[in-house]
Amino acid sequence: MTDADIPGMTRIAVTVISRARQTRVERLADGGFRVAVTAPAHEGRANAAVIDALAEYFRVPRSGVRIVRGLTTRRKVVEVADR
Q: Can you give the residue ranges of every domain in the chain?
């Protein structure tokens, strides 16, 4: 079983904008997401803010969101638990 085969999880492509004026999540026409967070991309603060924003957007617990790929880049692959 690979990571992609985990039941109950959906993978999404996310582009992150750190140090934004406000936190927001936008769904893009290609099916991906753009997440703007106020936190800086320093010591994992932006990644933590992205997880918080996506958990709120999808109405799942924070533990139901995890960054699978792209911890140090703006473009990430994130798994979100199905509701």
A: 34-61
Task: Give per-residue pLDDT as tens, 24-81.
Answer: 999 999 999 999 999 999 999 999 999 999 999 999 999 999 999 999 999 999 999 9
Rounded Cα distance, 52 and 56, in Å? 6
Encoded tokens for 70: 């792209």
Q: Which residues contact 12 (CB under 8 A, 6 or more apart)?
A: 31, 32, 33, 77, 78, 79, 80
Longest CA–CA separation in the chain, Å:
41
Question: pTM for this structure?
Answer: 0.89
